[in-house]
Design brief:
There is one protein chain. The chain has 364 residues and is of the alpha/beta class. The chain has two domains: 107 residues, Aspartate Aminotransferase, domain 1; 223 residues, Type I PLP-dependent aspartate aminotransferase-like (Major domain) (Aspartate Aminotransferase, domain 2, 3-Layer(aba) Sandwich). It is 38% helix and 15% strand. It has 13 helices and twelve strands. It has a seven-stranded mixed beta sheet with strand order 2-8-7-6-5-3-4, with helices on both faces. A three-stranded antiparallel beta sheet has the order 9-12-11, with helices on one face. A two-stranded parallel sheet has the order 1-10. Helix 7 links the parallel strand 5 and strand 6. The relative contact order is 0.16.
Length: 364
Amino acid sequence: MLDAVTPRSVPLRPAVADLPAYVPGARASVGAAAWKLSSNENPYPPLPGVVSAIADAAADANRYPDMYATELTAALADALGVRPESVVTGCGSVAVLGHVLAAVCGAGDEVVIPWRSFEAYPIAVAVAGATAVPVPLTDDARLDLVAMAAAVTDRTRVVVVCTPNNPTGPAVRTAELETLLASVPSDVLVVLDEAYVEFVRDPDAPDGLDVLAAHRNVVLLRTFSKAYGLAGLRVGYAVARRRIAAGIRATSTPFGVSHVAQRAAVVSLGAAGQLLDRVEAIVAERTRIVDRLRTQGWSVPDSQANFVWLGLGDRSGAFAAEAAAAGVLVRPFAGDGVRVSVGEPEATDLLLDVTAEWSAPRSA
């Protein structure tokens, strides 16, 4: 008989045990009616042809998908004007970011990130075994690329540039990005997270593909979740020089993009014209929201994404609760502000009724 021993718990890595929980956008309770403006989703459903492709692909759910998403990768390469070897797909751009970090980071390495920015960044960095170095935004809710460049040390392996920035909205400008790239050592990877690139209308914003062509240490992250309306199927991708792309591919989860998702993405890419017409409608609704908010007395950053930012600070939770009571779900970030996705015009009208009650002098 084995000697009795005191049971011990299996230890978790300290970095994992201390991870903050990712907080998803609020969902309406079962049976409740509310407009969901909390998750930056596209308010339009997939096109009928995409729905048909999803249904057809579901018949093959007993088979593994094409591990390298060959057809989708080729279609993306053709659309972007790059070689297929430069494209790596994954289960949403956040998963692809995790693969990027796994390819280049190790214990003791640092990753410079803007903050506040995408909530998953510090989580992904910690999971990769590296240390996040957050750099505060400017007072007008923009990335401070000068400060981010100054935060680079001998331990830095990656600098993440979220453009447009989630959750505040502004995109970086070409000149400031080029200054950052000139300052960062060539062996430090600069990740341009362009999840919302299709919504950008700022003429001074950089063309990510041009930046990639000019700099060997740049990786682009993009997604089908936002402009293409496939958030529920999780399809993202990286575009990089072939050697870096090979490293990202090597760390990727095998069969990470389902057959259903691949087919939906291929058909959506083929219908890009129709889908980008929807993007134009979302941009127009974004303009309406920003204009009305400013008329009400709000100070709103120049959003280039499919959401707007209300810098409410400590009043963020109270505003979100009041909006939910009015039938609009928004995304509060405690102590900082509230992100409101651009949705249906009816949702906009309800939101603006709430913000009218919070206008100057209580506004951001």
